[in-house]
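Recap quiz, item 2
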Amino acid sequence: MSSKHHRVGDGPLIRRTLIGLAVVLTVLFLFMPLVVIFTQAFAQGWAGYIGNILDEYTLHAIGLTLFVALLTVPLNTVFGVFLAWLVTRFSFPGRRLLISLIDIPFAVSPVVAGLLYLLLYGSNGWAGQWLGQYDVELMFAWPGIVMVTVFVTCPFVARELIPLMQQQGRDEEEAAVVLGASGWQLFRRVTLPNIRWALLYGVILTNARAVGEFGAVSVVSGSIRGETNTLPLHVELLYQDHNIVGAFTAASLLAGIALITLAVKTIAEWRQSRV
Amino acid sequence: MTIEIDGINKSFGQFQALRDIDLTIPDGQLTALLGPSGSGKTTLLRSIAGLENPDRGRILFSGEDVTGLHVRERRVGFVFQHYALFRHMTVSENVAFGLKVMPRRERPSKPEIRRRVRELLEMVQLDHLAGRYPAQLSGGQKQRIALARAMAKRPEILLLDEPFGALDAKVRKELRRWLRSLHDELHFTSVFVTHDQEEALELSDQVVVMRQGSVEQVDSPLELYSQPDSRFVFNFLGQVNALPGAISGGVLRQGEAWVRLPESCDDDDAELYLRPHEVRLTQEPSQNAHLPFRIEAINVIGAEVRVELRPDGWESEELWEVGITHSAFNARQPGRGDRCYAVPDVGHLFCDHLSEPKTLSWYDSAG
């Protein structure tokens, strides 16, 4: 019998192989592409990078993407908090069904979602025809892009909040009401502080997805340069134009947002684990 | 403030939690709501607070109907079973919450709030923990902070839901005494929920025994223990020894066991209930009772020696339990498996044709 005891599966050979494999895969599939994005984006140096960003259509794509996120994120934050409150604080028939329905946007492919909106609100769809009588065009314009982005990102906040609010229960809220708190005071002073880190996490995920959504948006946007082209769509357009450096410059902006999201998410998770 | 409960009913789906509750909770007294789990005691407490809306019936505070009044308007103090302290606030912020959320016109000034919070924390003897968060407190400390928070707006009614349920025995006893003295000092009307008989009997002025959503009996602890109205109350409050049998010619009989009743009773099926201290243990049967047993177990820990007895030649649902003094135990040295006899001094007879039990005494007859 050897003097050293190992737990099952903890032999030095197994351990080193597994760690090595994980490192290689991470570098190959996660880290290298990220590096490639930035090296390609900077292939023409700083001046070229700035020049590509200041391109008229790229600037417009950035603007539209931020505009869509600016509308989507607050909307889905309010919606998510409202929904989580509803299903965790009240019991009503159909509550479980509602909790399952929240996940539809996760289950449906974004392209299918885009297509559904197109069929419903496009000029030939039944809602679209009715709106057409009033000269309202939702598809192939920014309202359509916002609509599908809201659809795709609506579960994030609610999904983060529901398990936490279920676990925390309603005791503290009842205590606050007995002590005389109004509905707003209750939310502002008791509920919100208890859910703030999970809420922030949900908002970050919503934002990341809203900025990066491609499939659903590409169906309803029509990709009109300088009008309905968001940043992810713009990357594809530039790439098809054989403007490789331009495409990677736009992609590097999205990658940058992703990195910031990751950092904030890590902080939010760390803070939440301390509460 | 007197609390009157007038014909309260409450259902959760198919389950009827409260049925036709009529109850008066006297001003300035400590009332216990006692019952097994699922008896509706917590629902009744929450209805008084306004956290549940009864389906039918009225609740009155000092004669004023508050049934339609929102929780926040009822001005009651409520202590939750699991304390429900605000986890992101310090102890002093928790205690100050009720004062801070008052409308600006009624709200005390900031220095006044600070002074009140300090006072309350001194009252619960935890002023040194003002800056701590709930997660840094022990169970007993949390409970006292919850109490201080509930008292912050000087409510005239204090409601407590299983206030000592989650604490260990020693802390529980300490807090019980402390709550009693606080109550005697401040004279608010308090109602607390418990499933612990000892706690209810020790702490309260009045006990409300509940069962399956109804009130079974309302009485002072002493009355309740010595004169239970029903078999349920008798069973629920402490150990009970039962002899089920049939009366014939003034003798209650089952198998080899019989007891001659000191009062005349009609022939009927009946059950005799005896508290452990109402029975003596002898080596020979008396002329009034023949209750043979085998000794099953002996427990010497405590002020008395508790002897568990298995009926010999007759049957009872549970083992009998009789207490004897340590000196009597040492003099006789009974062992497991020995045969002995029980002789009743006082007993409570539940006849099937009578709704009220009859209390019997054998002291006068030669035993």
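Residues 149 and 213 of chain A are 7 Å apart (CA to CA).
The interface with chain B takes residues 171-172, 174-182, 185, 189-190, 193-194, 275 of chain A (CB under 8 Å).
End of item.
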